[in-house]
Amino acid sequence: MREVPRGALALAGLAVGILLLAWFLIFSFVFLPRGMVG
Amino acid sequence: MPETEEGILRSEFRWAVIAVGLVSVIMIAVIYAGLVQHINPPSNIETIDPNTLHLTGEFSEANLGTFVDATGQVTSRIVATQFTFQPQCFVVPANRPVTLRFASPDAIHGILITGTNVNTMVVPGYISQVHTVFTKTGDLLMPCHEYCGLGHSQMWATVRVVPEDEFKPNAVGRVSCASG
Predict the structure, then answer these.
(1) CB distance A32–B37 less than 8 Å?
(2) Rounded to an integer, what is the distance from CA B55 to the centroid of its chain?
């Protein structure tokens, strides 16, 4: 049972990290290249 | 892994710091896009009477479409109605600032232009205005993206982005899909 809580942080960190990376990929490769609007 | 109450609190605090940090990073990215790249949500407050906009004034039929004024400013005026855009095709130049203005006489519509960040609602009683610069030439799709009735799925227009040298206004400054 001791191992489970340690893995929780790794899992949460990995999941959030993947989502953050996906956000930045779409932001830099789709959103910014689509150019100026206002 | 912490087993004490204090240890748990410390872990939670660290995770909260990380979460706030992530949100801040995202906010900085959005502010950067707004200030440096000039990518902002369109914001315009201008009212117009939806019942008479087609009769006189800016959105009367002869005034719709793309016009270049004396200062070289390119403005496209489009009426969004159930269930068509008028005009259904309009021309814009590439690599030049363009102002798009929309009005609706009936229901709430919305437009987006594929491949660009142009995206705004068109609400009866208000004029929606978007400034942008088109970089890629070609025909872009501009569908209505706000459900406006049974014909909503058939409501779309073509945005023809032409290279600078092909963008030639006629004597009154109009450029239309029909010419050239």
Answers:
(1) yes
(2) 25
Query: Nearest-CA residue of chain B relative to A12?
Result: B15
In chain B, residues with a C-beta closer than 8 Å to the C-beta of A6 are 1
Q: Tell me the pairing of strands B109-112 and B174-175.
A: unpaired
Of A7-11, B86-90, B101-105, B136-140, the one with minimum mean pLDDT is A7-11
Q: What pTM was estimated for this model as a whole?
A: 0.88
Q: What is the mean pLDDT of residues B110-123?
A: 96
Statement: residue A1 has pLDDT above 70: no
C-alpha–C-alpha distance, residues B115 and B158, integer Å: 13
Partner residue facing A36 (CB), from B15, B38, B119:
B38
Residue B13, C-beta contacts closer than 8 angstroms, at least 6 positions apart: none
Question: How many angstroms separate the CA of residue A18 from the nearest CA in chain B?
Answer: 12
Check if the interface score ipTM surpasses 0.90: no
